[in-house]
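Q: What structure does this chain adopt?
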Amino acid sequence: MLLKFVQVLLVLLDLRTLRALVLSRPGTLLSSLLLGLLSTLGFAPYNFWTVLLCTLSLELTLASAQPGSKRVFLSVLVFFTGFFLISHSWLQYTMGYYSGIPETLGYSLILLGSIYLALYYATSLSLLHRLLFKKSPAVFLICACPLAVLLCDYLIGIGPLALPWMYFGYACQAGPYLSFAPLIGVRGMTLLLLITAALIAMGLRRQFLYLPGAALIFLSGILLSNLQFVQKLPAHQALLVQGNIEQMVKWQSDGVDKSVETYLNLTTPRLGSVPLIILPESAIPLYFDLAQNLYADLNTLALSKHSEVIIGVPRRDGQQRPYQAYNSLYVLGSEAELNQAQIYDKRKLVPFGEYTPFAALLRPLSELFAIPMSSFVSPKDKPELLHADKVSFIPAICYEAIFPELLKEQAAHGAQALLMVSNDTWFGQTRGPEMLLAMSRLRALELQKPLLRASNNIHTLLLDHEGRLVKELPANQTGVLEISYEPTAGQTPYVRYGTLALWLLCALLALLGVFGLFKTKDDKAEQFKKLVRP
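A:
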């Protein structure tokens, strides 16, 4: 028995046999699935970006070794399906715990959604393989694949079903790629990571002349680290409030009373001790018009104490019926009249959580989730900065933190700090809050602005303009966090030229691809390649 095991092991260790097994149809599917599953280790809370770089390099190598575009389609489809299936698995908690959806059905829906997202990447890469690979494997891997993935990322991040949750650049919470955040943002980081993976894949194809290109990207990131594009302003004081209200309790009638009591007890005694107090998303789960006396009293008290309060409150537009409901932020204590208070309405809403896309067709599916206050609308007006304690804030409510261009638009108008509020109780004890925080951190790095974040139960914290954690409340604890933060003046290259720089980088990559396809073969260069590729 032992002898047979050793014989089988020796056969498997033979590289030619192993290669044949991997490149067989079952071997390709199994290998792609394994690589896709392992890729999620690159993201929070694990943050092993080197693992992601390795899995991307191996998947590109595997795809380029396939005998035809159909096999490339299957390989890429399985890779991204596994990748998205694990990355979005936190959705099962929300669907199961709050909507009562059976676990089997919940995971089936996540699997279908993962296949839908993976189809974008599989279709584009297999088409490019058919068009380009025979002419130039290098052009296919280094130029076409990164551009195709970037385009697919963009497509799944727009429209009513947008879920731009898993850009590869978000895995770069450390290492050389992080230096590119204030220059070209998370999309540019994704592009550079993919180019590096493609260069390594060419090396794995025994074309070693491409490996110095990967080293050059690494070296550039190291040399660009610690670049500062903004100036610190004098420090300000603030208080972040974490109520830690259980989600199932929060939306019940007696839960509203508990929320009001908890947040008022945490807030009102501290009015006057700090100039700014920030409460999380939907801190009081009661439409603004139904509790105007409460907010009017809080506004008057805050004004008399010379403090301002930013509070998450759902509101309805009383001028129209049926009412238009918004997930909003109010700034209290800055104006004597309540109707003159600054308001920010959430622009990017969670599909099926806060609104129903294609409502006439998909309303029954929305009712299946049965999530309270899930009929919000997005405002038509362009957002403005929130001003409190003489600081100009870029506001973002929960899900909005994952849209890079959304916050970049406002940063160009004199913003000095980032303000994010959230209700991460929806995630439960999953990796969802860690992933959302990692994305929020990238926003702070892209803009080089401090991030003040208030959440209901976890990650109530302060990050400085370099994305470093300054102070944080313990998770699942009721309390307040007193902070001192330094706003920043000025704009990063990403804010000024980020979109243009990314377009130029993509154009350069496309031009290199065209040049690679149509250049005349050099016999001496071919002979040299044979020398370095035995």
